[in-house]
Amino acid sequence: MVEWTDSERAIITSIFSNLDYEEIGRKSLCRCLIVYPWTQRYFGGFGNLYNAETILCNPLIAAHGTKILHGLDRALKNMDDIKNTYAELSLLHSDKLHVDPDNFRLLADCLTVVIAAKMGPAFTVDTQVAWQKFLSVVVSALGRQYH
Ligand code: HEM
User: How many separate domains does the chain show?
Assistant: First the structure.
């Protein structure tokens, strides 16, 4: 079981309370699709992913980015049981969508880059430590139902 200090909880809560889900979700998913183009294979039904420009202004991708952030805030609301919180979502990504679990880490890194760029100097070392820990727990929980 993952233990969280009061300070880690405060940092994670504060990141979410200042988060623009639409902006950060869209930018993170777009960045993932552009920087790691093989991740595009799962989004065949999402319209035009021809190049960086079309990805960045694709409304279906933007909407899915927002959906991912709403998925992420389930972990915030259930910090002491992230593993079970994601059991179903993990099953969906493995059995139904066949998403390679390595990709969770890639998207997580894009989220970190986008949030750090947005927060600027407020993204301190302590912030990064807590945020990275939070995302590692999410990534591991999402990967749990793979076998
Ligand atoms: C932090 C990591 C991630 C979270 C929190 C997350 C969350 C979600 C959520 C909430 C849904 C909607 C589930 C539903 O409709 O019930 C979803 C669907 C989906 N996810 Fe993820 N996801 C993550 C990573 C990824 C990655 C890395 C990929 C592929 C590279 C991916 C591909 C998909 C696809 C293809 C769908 C179905 C989209 C559709 O057809 O509507 N996800 N994800």
Answer: 1
